[in-house]
Each structure stands twice: as structure tokens, then as C-alpha cells.
Please model this.
Amino acid sequence: MTKTTPAYTQIPILIVDDNPDNIFSLTILLQRNGFLTESAQSGEEALEKMLRENFGLVLLDVQMPEMDGFEVAGFMKGNKKTRHIPIIFISALATEKDFFKKGLETGAIDYITKPFDSELLLLKVHNLLKLSFAEQELIKANQQLESSRRRMEKKAESAIFSFDSIFQNSPDLMLILDQNIRIVDCNRDWLYGKTLPKHELIGKNLTDLTFQFVTPPPYPSYQEFFQHVFNTKDFNPILEIEVLVKGKGKIYYETAFTRILDLERNELMLATFKNVTERITQQLEILRSYQEISNFKQALDQSTAVIITDLDGNILEANERIESISGYQCKELIGQHTRIFNSGHHPASYYHHMWQTIKSGKIWRNEIVNKAKDGTLFWLDMSIVPMKNETGQITRFLATRIDISDRKINEAELGKQAFLLNTLSVINTQLLKMDDFNHTLEDIFSQIGQSLDVDRVYYFVNHVNSINSELGCSQIIEWCDESIEPQINNPKLQNLSYRLIPEIYAMLNNGQTFGSLISDIQNDAFRKTLEEQKIKAITFCPLIVNGLFYGFIGVDECRRERKWTQNEWEFLKTFSANLSSVISEMQAKKRLEDIYNERNNILESIGDAFLSINDQWIITYWNKQAEEITRYSSSEALGENLWDLFPQYADSQINSQFQDAMNKKITKHFEYYFPEKKIWLDVSAYPSVSGLSVYLSNITQRKSNEEKLAAYAKELARSNQELEHFAYVASHDMQEPLRMVTNFMTRLDDMYGSQLDEKGKTYIYYAVDGAKRMRKIIQDLLEYSRAGQIKSKTENLDLNDIIQEIQTLHRNIIEEKNASIQYSHLPVIHSYRAPVKQLFHNLINNALKYSQQDNEPIIQIQATEKESEWLFSIQDNGIGIAEEHHEKIFTLFNRLHSREAYSGSGIGLAIVKKIIGNLGGEIWLQSTINSGTTFFFTLPKEHHNIRQH
Model:
């Protein structure tokens, strides 16, 4: 049977290239496949031929002298005769995005890159010629239709009567429309989802028919479009519409709209619907095929490396994807044998079977390991397809290669991960059940070493060096491969100071792992130590126990410089975390045992009797002191009901107090006298989770002492009252002679002063002054003795008001010295008004008195709140106090300066100290000579009872 040659192959193809070799190779290729060709070696020659002859396709070289491919394409698209001819650019530069974009903007349909893929070129030529041929046919049909329409118009003008014959006998559907686009006549039925008979079409509006334009006209609505056809002279549009016919699918019509006149010269419109379904379907199929081929090629180039070889395996062509996979440029591979990728991973039989398969004409597919240009290995899913000519002979091989290295790595990693997880599960079971810590850890280290394929696994524990108190560590457990020398007895790994490896310590102390090739370690001394052990890579994982850096797990690699995978890191970190938890639990268990033993030791060693009772009143603990007080041994008491053991107290105060403590969960303290034992006990019952804890303290001696103390207190109160009376009487009686001495000496001076010489007047002055000072001392002694006697009650004292009152009292000296007393936001305290006011008065008076002559006194008062007390400070800029006198100034009559320089008896600070002591506080100072003094003192927030002296 004779093979029919497609009509479109008879449309000549114009090959434009300034290289005769390229023209020759393309001509041979196309003519062998049944195409007609012509050629031109310049852009000018090509344009001349296109203007003389008709071509179905132009293969246009981009880079040509004088007129390049872009200029030729521009001229072609600007000329009416040549604008429809499709162009395929041929260039080696098409891989560049901007270059490719420019070509498409100029008018190219596609690109073929040099060196070109013959099969892909032929496929594109076939499709584009087919499309071009269809377009030519469409143009001819349109021209014929146009000619027919014009002939019909002429005939209508000359012979209206012939129109009806043409109208009724036309194979195409024809509608006559009025100005409102209403159908006034038609020549056949309308087919769409439902058949509409001819007589039902009459009177309907065209827009009522079910159809849609393939390319909608540029008008807001169909109504406006049809009105534009009526109103515009010589506007006879030809459009394509799509109709969905029930049972037949989509039908395409080429619709022409022409204005006509009826016999009354009314303007009408003739709408002709020509069935062009076959042509449109072919066009759409060609476009779809072309798009699929383009998409397939683009997807193929993005995902798959393609290599075409001759029958001996020499590479003829390669796409760009092979470059990113292998590292070789395409131009490096052309002419090379495929063994350039041989990795040595597969045996010779593997390749022998591959060649046998493809040379027999079968497709070979398998996974293969190739070697890249830099020597790294990568996995491929490779398919090799034998390519045959029209006679069935194999002419070359096409190999597609998909990089599956990531998948193979992931498969290996998943397998490794599953193995490590299983190992970790076994190790965790051993950790939970361990009896002998060191022996179990040695066995676990063996499993870790074999699972990770490392040379050494070991355990370092932190400690403080007893000699220099530095933090260090020592190796205590080690596993190593049989081929590796053990280091467990290496003295350099004992008492290793972290001071020598500060950067590693910082990471481990922060809970970070440390891993490095030995060649990358910057610490020379540490690197040298590791090199002596023939270590090439090292890894440390910290053990963080109860939030503190406890030690670390180390892994050595002695045979290779190894970098760990994420799964291996996670395995080691998980094990370290689990081991840290086990160590923490061991420590907690040890602490619990120590606490339990310590509690028992404490309970047995305390002087009080102790017993614990559960919520059923069963005795659960009974110490030795309980045995001595009750005369019941622990073996007799433990497990017994308390009220069965002591029925005489079942209805006593003890029972009611214990019941309250048990039921209300409150602590009970009370004293109880046991007449049968003739002892007093201080009983404390503390509620616990399970019952009560009871302390029994023998206070018989204390009660006896309290009775004696009460008698002593009564006697002391009487004695204090007598002493107070004596002090008053003594001070009054002692002051009376002094007043007499002062008066008589003053009268002596008045009466005989003119008769006395200077020495006599001096004697009188000294006698009077001594008497005055003696009187002042007696008054100060009386004031000091009364300083601890408080008759008032505690009240809320605003210290800001207290200081204001003192400022008013010292107004004269403040103005005289231009002094400044600075304070703000002093607190309100609960205390006794008189002593508090007196201590502030004395300290401020002291600061004003001992100011420097040339400086204006500045006194700063501040208060700071503490948990149970207030801390006050009174700072001045006075003369200061030498450090050796800081304690002496608080003693009676201790003066540091002469009376001529500073007045006073030296009792003010003694009174201050006594007041503060009575109030339950403390006083101290800081001072620098010629810079000033700061007195600090505390006062409790609550004053229950002031101490009386």
C-alpha cells in the first residue's frame, strides 16, 4: 500500500544561515524526511526569496553579518505577504533568558539550539508546517468566502430574485436579522443543546440562541456589537463561535455578518454560519500538541539529564541538566565515552548486561552510581532507549538520567535512624535496670561504639582539684575498638583542668555539644595531646544533671576525619540526656536515703520525744526519748493505737487538741502536766499528709525556773522602785550643796570682788564652773537612768513631723550656721514617741554641734525598708570621727574634744545607743576625718515590749 504524503510537507521550507555546513546538514535532514527546502546565506537574500515565493516555515539563524535574524524577523512581520510565515530561530545562545525573550518578542515561534536535536527539530517542523498549512487553508477559505460574499452582493444588486434561491439552497445556516437583531427569516433549523425548528426561529432575537464566541468581540455586550455592525459601513466581521450540540459535542461555526437591502430598501443583516468544526479542531489539536511538546521538553530539561550516544557509547548530544548533576559542561562531554561517569561501584557484568539489552533493541532501566567531575558519587535512575530509523535499524541510544542521590541518602539515613533508635531503646532499658553503674555503662559504650562505628567511647566526670581548687575532670570509663590503643590509664586524662580548654568548657557548660576535626582545633596544647592519642576527630556531649554541668560523654575517631550526620548527633545527644536523667535519679535516690537516715538520726538524737501517728491513730514512729518518757519501747508502741496504749488520756485535753490538729489540719502547741509522772511536757502536734507528727519536750525544769524567775521579777520590781526613789533623792540632795556653793561664791564675788586680785577671781570662777558642771553631770546621769523607762504606749509616728518639730527647736542654731536638714518621704513607724524623738534630737544636735567652721552644715536623713525593720541613716559633712574612737563615743562621759572647743558632757550618744537598744535595734557609724560622719541605726517594724533596764 502506497504511503500518502501529507500535503503540508509540499510547502517549501526556507533555511537561512551564513554557514553553508549548517544549511547542508539541515537540508539533508529535512529532505530525507520528505520536506521541500530552499536556502539563503544572508538576510537580504532570504527576504528577496520570501517576496517572490511562498514558504510554509523559515529556519532562521540569529547571528549573521550585516542583517541578523532579529532584523529579518522584523521585516517579515512587517510585510503583509510574509507576516504569517512561522519562524524557528536557530542559535547557540538560546539558553540565555533575555536572548530567548527578545526572539519571541520579534516574532519567533520557537528556538532550536545548536547542536540541535534532530528528532525534536523534525517534530517541531512537522507541527508548525501542519499549523501553517491549516492557516493557509483558512486564509484561502476566508478569501473564497469573501469573494463569494462580494459576488453575492453584486448579484443581489442586479437580481434580487436570485438571492432567495441562494439563500434557500446554501449548505450553511443563514439568518436574516432586522435592526433589532430579531430573526425575520432563516434557511434551516438551528442546532444546539436542543434542536430549534426553522419556524420557531422566526421572531427570536439572535442573542436568545445558545452560543459563545471563540474570541469575543471587543464590546460590552452582543447587542452593542450587532448594532455596531448595522451602523458601520463596510464593517462585515467574520467571527468564530462555539455551539454545544446534544449528542455531537462542540460544533464550531465561522460566522459572517453582512448588511443587505430588501425589496423595500430596508437595511437588514445576513448572518451566515459555516461549519468549520474540522478545521478548528485541527488547529486546536496542533496548538495543543505543540504546547504539550514544549511543556514536555521544558519539564524534561528541568528534571532529567538526557544524553544521546552513538552505537559505541560516544556522547553526541547532552542537555543542560547533566551539567548540574555531573559538574561537566555539555561541550566537555561531546565526543567523550560514557565511561567518563564510571564510578567503579558496579561490576563489569552489570555493564555487560546493559549493553546486551540495548543492542538487542530493548529498553534498559536500572539504578546506577556515577562519578561527578569532582570525584563525588551520585545515584541515578537511568533509562536507555534504542533509537531506530525508518527501516528499524538502531542508529543511536538515548539515555535519560534522573538524580536520585537525595532519595538514596534518605533511604540510608532512614535505615541508620531505625537502627540507632532500636539501639537507643535497648540502651534505655539497660539504664533503667542497671545495678552496677560502671559495669552497665561499659557494656552500653560497647554498643554505642559498634552502632556508630567509632573507635573510642568514654565518660569524664567533673571535680574540683583539691590542690589548686580549679574545676577539672577525669576519665573513669572507656570502651575502645580492638585495633585502637586504650587511654583509660593515660595520666594526662586524669585531673584535666578546664582552664586549658576554656572555649570547650564554655560550650559544654551551656549544654552545647562540641565536635571537631583535630586539624581544625586552634588550641595548640590540646590539639597536641589529641594527636599523641592518634585521634583524627572528636565529639563531646555534656551531661547536665539538675541544671549543672556534671561531666561529658566523648567519642573518638582515630582512623578517619569524620563528620557526623544529624541522626548520629541526635542519637548521642539523646543518650547523654537519658544518662543525665539516670544520674539525676541516682543522686535524688541517694539524697533521699541520706535525708531518711539523717532524719532518723536527728529524731533519735534530739532531746525531745517524737512520735508519728497516721489518720487511724496508729503509731508509725517512736524514738528513744519517747521510750524514756513513756516507758514503752518502740517495739511495744509501733503499730499500736495511741488511745489503746494510753486509755487514760482518751478524754483529756491531749485528745481534743490532737483531734483539732488532725481534722482541721492546723498546728497545736500546749503544755500539759502528767501527774503520774510528775512532769510538765510541752506538746507540739503538726498535721502531715498521713496523720500527725508529735513532739514532747520535758519542760519540768523550765516551769520550775519560771516560778523562781517570777519571784525574782517581783523582787526586782520592788528593788527598781526603791532605786528610782533613791536616784531622785540622791540627785536632789547632791544638787542642793552645789547650789549653795554656787550661790555663796557668786555673793562672795559680788561683795568682795573689787578687793580680790585676779588670782582670787580665777579661783571663784573655777569653783562656780565646777559646781555647774557637777550639777550638769548629775542631771545627765538622772536622764540616762530614766532613758529606758517608758510610761506611754506605742503609736503611729510620722517621722517627717518628728524632724519638723526638731528643726523648730533648733531654729536659732540652724539659722546661725545656715544649716540644711534634707529629708523626704520618711516612713510612718509604730513605736514610742518620746524615745524616738529623743534619739533623732540627739543625733541631729550632734551633727549641728560638730560641724566645720568654714562649711555650712548639711544633714541628710534617709530611710530604707527591710523585711522586718527600718534602716535609717543620718549623714553630715562635719569634722568626722577617727576610726579608733568609733566605739568609745557611745560610752558615758567620753569626750573627744575640749570643753572650750565643743560644749557638752559626752552623754548624748550613750543615751541614743541605750534608746535604740531598748527598742530592739542596733547603731553603728562610718566616718572620715574632715569629710563627715554617717550614723546608721535600725528600728523594728513592730514593738511588742520595750526592754526595761
Remarks:
- DSSP finds 27 helices and 34 strands in the chain.
- The chain has a mean pLDDT of 80.
- The CA atoms of residues 411 and 417 lie 10 Å apart.
- The longest strand covers residues 249-261.
